[in-house]
Predict the structure.
Amino acid sequence: MPSDSDSDDVLEELSTSARLVYLALEHEADGGPISQSDLAAEVHLPPRTVRRVADDLEGHDLIETRHGQQDGREIHYTLTTPDR
């Protein structure tokens, strides 16, 4: 995971939607996990947009994507941490 200053630099280069999704995850009580549909509702973006920007965030090691345990079609996002 990038350091806080590296994360800030990366976030500045990403789209407004990506920053919004990251900040929403950051403000979750424990950093997630939060489902794609819940996150989309929270940030008022279409699920397709959330998925696209989540891919960008994951490519920069800022978040992790996992499929649901009960329903493999469900996607959950969490912030990355140094111990993950």
Q: What stands out?
A: The beta strands are 34-35, 63-67, 75-79. The helical segments are 4-13, 16-26, 36-43, 47-59. The longest helix spans residues 47-59. The CA atoms of residues 28 and 34 lie 8 Å apart.
